[in-house]
Amino acid sequence: MQRRLAGTLGVWVVACAALVAADFWDEKDFTTWSDKEVEKMLTDSPWSREVTIVLGGPRPSRIQGGGGGGRGGGRGRGGAEFANRVRRATVTVSWIRALPVKQALVRSEIGIDARIPPESQELLSQTELYYVVSVSKLPPRFAALAQDIPAVVAETELNRKNKEPISPYDVRFFRNDADPSIQVVYQFPKTDAITLDDEDVEFITKLGGIDVKKKFKLKDMVFGERLVL
Length: 229
What we know:
This protein is of the alpha+beta class.
């Protein structure tokens, strides 16, 4: 009885582990990913994460008072009070040349179960010479930073524990066609390769004095049994 119970328990544990480990990008061909799965890959996956940034400190917001009739009342009729509001924005930090992300981008363009055109096949099969990280959905005001690329380069790096940081080779700014948001694309050399032994890597940049940081766990970025960045 104990032996049978132990065997059943072992099968159950293995089955549960398999269910936990089953991600759609491992189980399904990318051409069959749903729109929701494509969006998840591009915003909430091991290769893409949303980050909240602080755009500025508190600023006064005038709120009209509604009641009370005293002459000196701060909230009386015609009076006002000032509330402080911190301005924030949500941006996406993504390894846009990692194969699963490229697959999501191709799938979003061609539609579900569609034939892959030659130019997309070329994108998917090409060997990437750089680590390419993007920060997207930035407010339009960040476009002005394109006038001083060296300053952006100087404030950007990939950090690993007990290793020298990797500085970008190039930085470029793009305006989104669908909305006025800005995307900044950073290229990092692969001369000092990132490996699973590094455990995690943190992307750090500063844009106009505003910090954008995100740490990625490398063991989660394995695709097809190898680290894919």
